[in-house]
Design brief:
Number of strands: 2
Oligomer: single chain
Largest sheet: 2 strands, antiparallel
Strand order of the largest sheet: 1-2
Length: 157
């Protein structure tokens, strides 16, 4: 495989798209002042895309073997991001913080995997849905909780 052949160019586009989609979600989190923001989300999406590309393209020579399963790396991406997300969630008193951030990182990893297997439309639509959840549903939550005392509705993000 030459450095700038069609397959390599395709990988570059995939990696850039994954990074961009992760960054879009991270931009919203950055705007909200969350600890995991633009760079974190972009890196998670980029890394998960690279792992997926490696599992699908990098080990093609082993594809005829019965023990070869390219989905193993995607499964490990899910496991790894769960570990990362678990480190973000914490309890202070009776209030849980970091759930939305952890879920967002989980989605960012899924976007990277989707782009890595060339499910571009699904990745783009999932990004739109994720931003809708983060922007629109947050406003709905605040509207629903508008009459409750402050301690009854904390931002769990």
């Amino acid at each position: 495989m030459a450095f700038f052949d069609a397959e390599t160019s395709q990988m570059f586009v995939q990696l850039a798209l994954a990074m961009f989609l992760g960054a879009l979600i991270g931009l919203e989190r950055e705007y909200q002042g969350k600890s995991a923001g633009l760079r974190t989300y972009a890196l998670v999406a980029l890394g998960s895309c690279l792992f997926t590309v490696i599992s699908t393209v990098g080990f093609e020579a082993f594809s005829g073997l019965t023990s070869y399963d390219p989905t193993r790396i995607a499964a490990q991406v899910v496991l790894g991001i769960g570990f990362l997300g678990g480190g973000i969630i914490f309890l202070k008193g009776d209030i849980v913080y970091g759930l939305t951030t952890a879920a967002g990182l989980w989605i960012s990893a899924a976007l990277g995997v989707a782009v890595g297997v060339e499910l571009y439309a699904a990745a783009i639509f999932t990004t739109i849905l994720s931003l809708t959840i983060l922007l629109v549903l947050k406003k709905l939550e605040h509207y629903i909780h508008r009459d409750r005392p402050e301690e009854a509705h904390h931002d769990l993000t």
